[in-house]
Amino acid sequence: PGTRILALSWDQTTPRRVADLLVQHVFSDTLMTVCECINGPRERIRTGVAQTFQMDAIDPLNLVALDIPRSSQGRALPLAAGLDDALFEHDGQITRSDMRAVTVGALRPHPGQLLWDIGAGSGSISIEWMLRHPSLRAIAVESNATRVARIKRNADALGVPDLDIINGTAPEALAALAAPDAIFIGGGAHAPGMIETVWERLKPGGRLVINAVTLETQALLARAQAEHGGELVQVQLARAEPVGRYHGWRVAMPVVQWRITKPLVQHMQMHQQPQWALGLGYQNGVQVEMIMAAIRATLALPEAAPSRGQTVRLFTLASKAQDVALLEAARQLDLRLEGLDAAELRRFAAGVRHHSPRIEALYGVGSVAEAAALAGAGQGSRLVVPRHTHGGVTSALAQANVEPAT
Fold it and tell me: How far is Cα 125 from Cα 107, in angstroms, rounded to an integer?
């Protein structure tokens, strides 16, 4: 309401179709001005109201100006995720409004990205994903043909007719699809090979979000989180509803959500160790620029002297390797990144020089940065730059054992 729009017409039928659409969505009091053959000998400008649109013999070369009154009763879509469930046609298989807002936020859409919405149900997640930005694309995968038709109707009604819909069963139906930047699984995560397949197909740096209601699928997500990292979050919502003359909380079933960013570089085999390993440690909330500055400062020290052609790689705790800021710093500096679990760090605890009681209590090593550097460089490595702090980031540098094996 209160908006003015200039719409370029496809042909002479467009003004009538626009009028019908406005009436359908309760914007029937919209003032429509049809401008035909502007600045030409056949120029004609006519005005009417959508509710009583009666123009005929419209020239194919036309555009339509719309003036939607502020008093219109039509429902405009908000900019935020979490549309009312009533806007979607569904059979109960839908991610509900509040949980949908949480899920779209967890997917972290960026312009131009492609989403796989697996077990799409009503298509609500992929539709809300596409509504966030005109450049976003989505593929909804659904095995039920009735729901596939319903997804198409929802996409058309909510303004994203370009939603790609696949009638098939995952993971088999995923084989021919373009690699995604983000994946959401709302149903079917327990299918054999599902998590392994989507993790393999997800682009490095991409987001995977899976919601689970049943205990069996929640246990599956716990095992996946133990293997790959990421976050496990439980969301439980309650709504106030009448209880006789009073009100009480109606609690919905809890939803467990696993969300993870795929590392830009997957874990390397130990025989692929670099010649130089830079270990990092920092608290949450550190910015990309601070991490990059710490890395550059460490490599600029006189004792840090990687020769041209020698490899330098970044190492940190596995839980930190999913951090968006660190992933972006590694990308911008073109350095490979690997996460190490605490057990691997503890194998190199004897070589650590700095000892923080707090860090030692948490991870079993006195310095994450030093232990990560030594572990990354491998057995026989030496600490060249001990732990030092730069803008809230701790870093250390180790050199691999370059002596030939005997």
Answer: 10
